[in-house]
Design goal:
Chain A: Pfam families: DUF6510 (PF20120). Chain B: This is DMSO/TMAO reductase YedYZ molybdopterin-dependent catalytic subunit. Chain B: InterPro entries: OxRdtase_Mopterin-bd_dom (IPR000572), OxRdtase_Mopterin-bd_sf (IPR036374). The complex is a heterodimer of chains A (86) and B (198). In chain A, a hairpin with a 4-residue loop joins β6 and β7. With 86 residues, chain A is mainly beta. Chain B is mainly beta. Chain B has one domain: Oxidoreductase, molybdopterin-binding domain (Sulfite Oxidase, Chain A, domain 2, Alpha-Beta Complex). Helices cover 5% and strands 34% of the residues of chain B. In chain B, strands 3, 6, 7, 10, 11 and 12 form a six-stranded mixed beta sheet that branches. The chains are: A mainly beta (86), B mainly beta (198).
Chain lengths: 86, 198
């Protein structure tokens, strides 16, 4: 049984914060350096928040917690998100 | 005029009181922020590290050799489900910490897989917490935190760290995995302390 989804499930919460579709961005893991499109990350959503993990090393790439008043976005696990310039 | 106000403490469901904002479930939902570690008991260990750096260590046979308690408690998840009268078997933290020399006020629980959660040390003592290794008379499933998890049922259940592997004691309060992402540093379900600032 798979207990994770792919990174596309983060599209909704991320679209609340950013104008561009970050799930299409190239993401580099700050833990192992694995670099791939963010949509290929593993997202654990059956949790108190949304947690995206690296397919290479399982390190946390991104966390989103939505509270009644705020959204917390933790990007510490990403070295970068590479977004095409339009 | 003498005014007595009992205040709002929760809802009654079939004579059972729930903390505010919670609903009753008879299932045991599995919440997870990452892959489930599968830790064999022959490789399992639990450590307590004090504020001076002294480390105390128990392997699985050492844990099994300690006096165990049968525990029946209600549990309350911050995602709003509550499950009543859950039954566990485990070793009290009073037993594990009895010979640990510390003046620390805080503990950070660390788990296999990297999860952390912070608690005041006093909330782990006086019969309030256990290292639980059986649920419903069966060995604790990995999906529920087996082979052993922290059980601190008077706080929201994210404090009851699955796959626990140690406590680090400290004079200062650091924040754990969910607490650094907007969840409350203490998490009392009866005060509905879900998020930072509640």
């Amino acid at each position: 049984m798979s207990d994770y989804l792919d990174g596309n499930v983060a599209a909704g919460p991320l679209s609340e914060l950013f104008a561009v579709d970050l799930t299409a961005a190239i993401a580099q893991c700050n833990g192992c350096g694995h670099t791939t499109v963010f949509a290929e990350s593993r997202v654990y959503a059956d949790a108190p928040g949304l947690v995206a993990r690296c397919v290479g090393c399982d390190s946390v790439l991104l966390r989103i917690v939505t509270t009644p008043n705020d959204t917390y976005l933790d990007l510490r696990g990403l070295t970068y998100l590479r977004v095409p310039t339009t | 005029m003498n005014i007595v106000s009992p205040g709002f403490t929760g809802r009654r469901r079939g004579g059972t009181e729930l903390p505010p904002g919670q609903y009753l479930t008879h299932e045991f939902p599995v919440l997870s922020a990452g892959p489930t570690p599968h830790v064999r008991t022959e490789h399992w260990e639990f450590t307590v590290t004090t504020e001076s750096g002294e480390m105390y260590r128990w392997d699985w046979p050492a844990l099994m050799a300690l006096p165990a308690e049968e525990i029946t408690k209600d549990i309350h998840c911050v995602t709003r489900w509550s499950k009543l009268q859950t039954t566990w078997k485990g070793v009290s933290l009073d037993t594990l910490l009895a010979d640990v020399e510390t003046g620390a006020d805080y503990a950070m629980a660390h788990s296999y897989g990297g999860y952390t959660t912070n608690l005041p040390l006093e909330d782990l003592l006086d019969g309030q917490s256990w290292i639980a290794y059986e649920y419903d008379d069966e060995p604790l499933d990995p999906e529920h935190g087996g082979p052993a998890r922290l059980l601190v049922p008077h706080l929201y259940f994210w404090k009851s760290a699955k796959w626990v592997r140690g406590l680090v004691l400290s004079d200062t309060e650091d924040l754990g995995f969910w607490e650094t992402a907007g969840y409350h540093e203490y998490g009392d379900p009866w005060k509905e302390q879900r998020y930072a600032g509640d």
